[in-house]
Amino acid sequence: MYIHRQRIWPALGKEAEVRAQLIDWAKQLQGKGRNVALSQRLFSSDGPSLLASTRADDLNALEKFRHEDAADADWQARAAKLVALLRLPVDSVVAETLVPLNGSGPVGVVQIAVGFPGLGKERQVRSITEEFVKSGQAAGVRISLGQRVFSSTGAVIEVTTVFPDLASLDRSRKERLAVTAEIVKAVHDLSREPIKARLFEVLVPFPS
User: Fold this and answer.
1) 17 and 75 part of one domain
2) What is the pTM (predicted TM-score) of this model?
3) Where does 45-150 have alpha helices with state H?
4) Which of 49, 68, 93 is where one domain is finished?
5) CB–CB of 10/85 below 8 Å?
6) 57-66, pLDDT tens digit by residue?
7) What is the C-alpha separation between 162 and 140, in angstroms, rounded?
8) Which candidate, 70, 112, 132, 170, has a CA 20 to 30 Å from the CA of 43?
C-alpha cells in the first residue's frame, strides 16, 4: 500500500473557502472510486494547512491517477481555482506502508510523527520503530509505519496513529508515556534532525 499526501496552505482569510472546496473535491473523487481523505492541521505554529491523502495499492495506480487528472478538465479547473487561494505551493510526498494500520472504527484525529535517520542508520531506525509500532498494535493502539519514497532529503520514516477524538489521544499518550519516551530517545540518537509530530482533525475520512 502507498499513500500520496499533499499539504495545502490557504492564504490568510481564505481558510474557510479552501476547506469547503477541498471537502467537496474529496467527496467528488470518492464518488469516482478514489480512496481519498481530507484533514486539517491542529495547533499549528505554521498557520492553517490541510492534508489531502490518496491511498493506492501500488505506484502504478498513483501514476494512473496522475495521468487521469492531467486529462480531466474538471480536475484542472478545480486545481486552478484552488491555487489562486493559496499562500504557498502544495507540498507533496509519497510513502510506502511497512506495517499496515490495524483495527477499525471511527477516526477523528490523526497524529503523524516523522523521523529522519542519519546516514547509515536507516536499518536501525526502521527496526526500532517497527518494534514500537507492533508493540503498540498489540496494546490496542491503532498505529502504522511507513517510509517515504522519492525523498530528496534522505530517508524519512512516518509513524501514524489514529484516534476517535482528542480525549482518546490524550489517554493513550499518558498510558504510553514511558515507552514513547524510550523510543523517541533511541531514534533521536540515530537521527540527523529532530522528530517532527503533527496533529490533524479528519474532515473527510477514507471510505470504509
Assistant:
1) yes
2) 0.90
3) 59-71, 73-83, 122-138
4) 93
5) yes
6) 999 999 999 9
7) 11
8) 132
Locate 114 and state its grid cell.
Answer: 516523522
How far is it, in rounded angstroms, from Cα 125 to Cα 130? 8
Write out pLDDT tens, residues 146-191: 999 988 788 999 999 999 999 999 999 999 999 999 999 999 999 9
| Residue corresponding to grid cell 501500488 | 58
Q: What is the CATH number of the domain that holds 40?
A: 3.30.70.100
Per-residue H/E/C for 68-81? HHHHCHHHHHHHHH
Of 102, 93, 87, which is closest to residue 48 (Cα–Cα)?
87
Number of domains in the chain: 2
Same domain, 194 and 136: yes
What range does the domain containing 65 cover? 2-93
105/81 same-domain check: no
Q: Which of 71, 93, 115 is at the close of a domain?
A: 93
Strands (E), the chain: 2-8, 35-42, 50-56, 91-99, 109-117, 143-149, 157-163, 191-204
Pair 188, 124: CB distance under 8 Å: no
- Surface-to-core class of residue 186, CB atoms within 10 Å of its CB (0-12 exposed, 13-18 middle, 19+ buried): middle
